[in-house]
Amino acid sequence: xxxxxxxxxxxxxxxxxxxxxxxxxxxxxxxxxxxxxxxxxxxxxxxxxxxxxxxxxxxxxxxxxxxxxxxxxxxxxxxxxxxxxxxxxxxxxxxxxxxxxxxxxxxxxxxxxxxxxxxxxxxxxxxxxxxxxxxxxxxxxxxxxxxxxxxxxxxxxxxxxxx
Length: 163
What we know:
Blueprint: E1 11-13, H1 27-33, E2 35-38, H2 49-59, H3 62-73, E3 79-83, E4 89-94, E5 99-100, H4 104-108, E6 113-122, H5 129-136, E7 143-144, H6 150-162
Parallel strand pairs: 1-3
Antiparallel strand pairs: 1-7, 2-6, 3-4, 4-6, 5-6
Helix pairs in contact: 2-3
């Protein structure tokens, strides 16, 4: 595997869907308010990340708590791909730290553990094949993608969309 380009701190798939059945997707909310996120509602809201991880471990399980910790510790500048309900792909770049969104709107879609993220829609013709494959496999987990060359391809799409 080749090294990532300078300033790229990973490329991730961000479905922004609750792992709980019956909860509507959170993609539209995440795009609208400029966040990337994962689920795991907690009442009352946690005091900080350590409190959130400890309580997610008890309420859900250790694996979910570990996913939350990894999500929160991703460096700013990492890329995230998501796909809206209409099938449009969006490329985002994490721009800030984890926080817990205790709003009713966030709880309604279980998108409560969030990071600020700058999103841009990407025409299908520009979406790298590795992104199409990872969404084609399905799943609800936020996860790193490891396709060869995907970091370079994603950076090129980001730079093209920014210009």
